[in-house]
Amino acid sequence: MIEDNEEESSVAEQERKNITEFGSVETKNPRGNIHCLNIIGQVEGHMTLPPQNKTTKYEHVLPQLIAVEEDPEIDGLMVLLNTVGGDVEAGLAIAEMIAGMSKPTVSLVLGGGHSIGVPLAVATNYSFIAPTATMTVHPLRMSGVVIGVMQTFQYFQNMQERIIEFVVSNSNISHEEFKRLMLSTEEIANDVGSILFAQKAVESGLINEMGGLKDALEKMYELIAKQREEKKK
User: Fold this and answer.
1) Nearest to 88 by CA among 23, 145, 137, 44
2) Which residue among 115, 127, 171, 194 is the active-site one?
3) Is 35 a catalytic residue?
4) Across the chain, which distance is largest between two alpha carbons, in Å?
5) Would you call 179 exposed, middle or buried from its count of C-beta atoms within 10 A (0-12, 13-18, 19+)?
6) CA dist 2 → 6, 7, 9, 217 (Å)
């Protein structure tokens, strides 16, 4: 009896640690075991951001995704997004990992899914956006020293095309429409790009559906049930 209590206490402590350090939690019920991953604040890449910044560290997220994919007790991945964006390559690395998973995946944009948060939101099998959430689509940006030569411009174009192709291949938006939104000069003062409110994000084909946590969970259980049925055949 004492051993059981100690084991339960150890599991609870590990769950608290996962929430505190990695922003992740697992829920279990007969309909399916779901791993919840939060992508919050700014996606941190190769450079460490100041301590006052709220960040999601990609070196924490990538191993989590491998663990979810390989854990037979986890049936699906729920991704909650409220991010301003961040490191492009780190964000794309996470998005590619999510898109390459065999288990059902669902995303829910809460508050905002801006910049590199757009590929992260569409990387899942099905995506939701809360009615009050927004998404910002804009061209690639780079900080630090930029060398003013044609090769730099070509690099920018190639990187931007990587992002566009990923978003287009993982959502229902067309290449032309996404590029138009990205290069629009009519919506953001002193900048280029578009701010998409929830309804517009769905109408453009970028996000599958507008909804909340209940809708996202119901879709997740639906995808889990479908995969279970396929495995029985």
Assistant:
1) 44
2) 115
3) no
4) 71
5) middle
6) 6, 9, 11, 35
At 216, which amino acid appears?
A
Residue 138 appears among annotated catalytic residues: yes
Query: Which class for 76: exposed (0-12), middle (13-18), buried (19 or more C-beta within 10 A)?
Result: buried
Which residue carries 């396929």 as its tokens? 230
Cα separation of the two ends of the chain: 42
Query: Of these residues, 24, 114, 127, 138, which one is catalytic?
Result: 138
Handedness of CA 139, 145, 150, 155 (dihedral sign): negative
Neighbours of 147 (CB within 10 A): 7
Residue type, 54: K
- Phi, psi at 27, each rounded to 5°: -115, 145
Residue range 41-87, pLDDT digits in tens? 999 887 777 777 788 888 899 999 999 999 999 999 999 999 999 99
Angle between helices 88-99 and 150-169 (to 10 degrees): 30
pLDDT at 1: 52
What are the tens digits of pLDDT across the range 83-142? 999 999 999 999 999 999 999 999 999 999 999 999 999 999 999 999 999 999 998 877
Give pLDDT, residue 20.
46
